[in-house]
Fold these 4 entries.
Entry 1:
Amino acid sequence: MSRTIKRQRGVSLVELIIFIVVVGVAVVGVVAAMRLGTAASTDPMIQKQALAIAEALLEEVQLQPFTYCDPDDANAASANSTAACAVAANNETLAMGPEGGETRAAAPLFDNVSDYHNVNLAGISGMDGAAIGGLANYTALITITPQGLGVIPADEALLIRVTVTGPPGTNATVVLDGYRTRYAPNALP
């Protein structure tokens, strides 16, 4: 009689071990890629937060008066040159930086655009000086520079640059530029 050899069907132990090794390597690669993606997913949130801070600070500065005289001067709203200021010492012609102890958050408060020149915030706070939760590791720098705009001379327009940097270890830096021009008379916003 002839014998028919039946082949067994299935997976040998060697094939099973090779399969487990290959799948294990693939799973490790997928998990590593997911971990990297998850770790980087906080960067967009930090970038958006830095952008929101920069926009808020830029708006805060742009809303300040830019007059020929100190805004406290009686002629601030009507002066069309520095000579028209009621008090000569109130002349604000591009005097960069705060005067008379003014600050952003405590009396006497900043009262014009140029007061914000070189304001450096380590930790973001509101205009009342109160720290805003979750923003302690952000920093901001505001610079004000005279900048001509076509037919508008440099002493009539200011470039406002706000640079916000995210927490250490992140690459989140946002730089926003804005302009404030002098409107006189009635230069108050």
Entry 2:
Amino acid sequence: MTLRWILILEGLLGAACGTSPDPRPATFEVISLAVLAPACATVACHSSTTNVQGYAFDTLDGARGALRQLVRAGEPGQSKLIDVITSRQMPPDAPMADQDVALIEEWIAAGAEGL
């Protein structure tokens, strides 16, 4: 990972802490790197190493492949990803933050650009 991406991620993760409106853009890169990778791409779950259920979220290419199967662009309510994270099935060790779920829903509703 380049220094540029590390700095972008640090800024995005820092911005996600707190209660103010989410300043993160609802983009494929932010959803993949700042939301799904830390929550889902652990070695025991959805990484390139384990590939549980055929999904890997630790790289942009892996996330793109997984999200193409889990997301119905323009329809968050019809997307398996939203079903799984809002039912609190995943991630299994801690529910995803509401702000992260809202960002994913916004991205899907806007057409899931980047897939």
Entry 3:
Amino acid sequence: MPLHRVSKERRLSLTVLALAALTLLVAIAAACGGSSSDSNETPLATPSAEDVIPIVVSHELAVGENRFILGLQDRDNNLILNASVHLRFFKLKDGKATMKSETDTQSVVVQESAEEEHDGGAPHLENNGLVGVYVAHVTFDAPGTWGIEIDAAVDGQTRDTARVQFDVLEKESTPVAGDPAPRSVQTVLRDVNDISEIDSSSPPRPAMHQMTIAEAIDSGRPTVLAFATPAFCQSRVCGPLMDTVVDPLFQRYGDRVNFVHVEPYALDRARQGQLVPVPAAEEWGLQTEPWLFIIDANGKVAAKFEAIVALDEVEPVLERVLGE
């Protein structure tokens, strides 16, 4: 697709997500009122949120520990940033909601930038404002349908409780911590005539296209692996991973850690408006983008991060891997 349409695509994608969230709000089983033999189990009721639309950004949630990512949007399609957010998680079954856990969230807010092209000129980066999500680490003990209640306070003002439901899988499609990293052999700089064939960054990052994933694994050093497309990111809530996380880490650890950037889409097709995943993205089980993986010196996945991520979430993991 033309580069100048990216930001419009992002807004459209977020609107679709918001409509889906609204549909879920009508259908969710929410814990409020009623009686039961289990003090945590209550009949389900229709939610009443008026001013907060929750968007479950996490595409892949499964039994076990998860990095749960939530976006909040108001009725004017504006992202709600820097709120104080508390979450309560419920297992939904047979018309009942059993509360399993509750937690506060970490706000992750970053400056969004996107490739823009005007009047046939060279692509350049433009800042498109702040984007942000709320992150919590949650353990799910069973697959199936789950729900959350969201208490949000913005500028000291408490909003109506919002509710939304989501599915938890038995197993994730992407590698989890402890799994051997897939030994993908993606196209690298030596395979192309111009780096623009494999990197939509502006400016490009040639240092991160020197080795295949398999070569990085064989090097005996830890690896930071980013599946990200600066020009063709499909949602505002995907975030500028390369600018805000990968580049700072490269500056600090580039002499001790491999850095590999893989465009998840074939760029020749993407520039024609067709988003076709590259083989490496399929081999890693990716169904969304961006993703960031930390691979240890033994070639095993140490951690993974989907969508918007903060530098202070990733750096401690990398320090631990280097220490090991």
Entry 4:
Amino acid sequence: MPEARPLEEALAEARRKYRNWGRWGPEDVFGTLNFIDAAKREQAAGLARHGRAFALALEFNRDGPRSGDRGRGNHIHTMLDTGEPTPQGFSDAEGMLFMPLRASTHWDGLGHIADRDMAWNGRPRAKVITGAGDVVTGVERQAAAFVSRGVLLDVGRELADGELPDGFAITEEHLRATIAAQGTTVGRGDIVLIRTGQLTRCRGSGTWDGYSHGPAPGLSFATLGWLHDTEIAAVASDTCGLEVRPHEFDEPCFAPLHQIAIPNMGLSIGEMFDTDALARDCAADGVYEFLLVAAGLPITGGVGAPVNPVAVK
């Protein structure tokens, strides 16, 4: 259902309630990743009890999730040298990868979104984003930060027998119900992974049509309070955008949850995480927490960080 109140009223209220500017000092470049401390990482390390590892990244290739528009949003991998052998039989192959930073599994950088021309922590966007990239909060600065207790919330499984329909808005009540059904907890410093099942559906259909910009299940704008109050460090999902599409306002808008979460709250958002194999394992043993190591590539000035997150149980 669309929000009953006007968009600008909802955005203004969310800024007032959930803005974290100055919370960690004027020079901060981590945002809610500050909730992860040494004790949290020590706790997370103890969750790797059995040595089962799950890679959560989609493959980086030409036929990836940004397919459409002749695939120009996907990765282009080309070989520079196929490794013709020398007389003694030595071969040395070399390739090159060209890709948009957010073409597949990635973290949005803190400079990726601005709100009314203001970036994270109250900085003018023009002083953060230049021709050299994000010169203040580039993703290279958070390269070691994404290590914590991971929690999978398999909302698709709990609410819809595996797959939420496109356009389904996940509310705070849905999140709490999933947590209760799974017998897990969510709290300060956790990295929360939300499985909607949309990726499963796309994989089964053999096409990415609509995945990037079409209707999608995702978080309701109203979950911003839960995201803020739980003090989680980051949140990611199996969709291309995290929040529900179409958006919940009658007025034209684009990614209103992002508009508050990233530049105002300082919350790191991950997209296109492949949680299917992990979800099957969690359902099998009833354990939905794990060590999550999800460091993005330290691309200087990057406004997005390609990543191969690994969950270890």
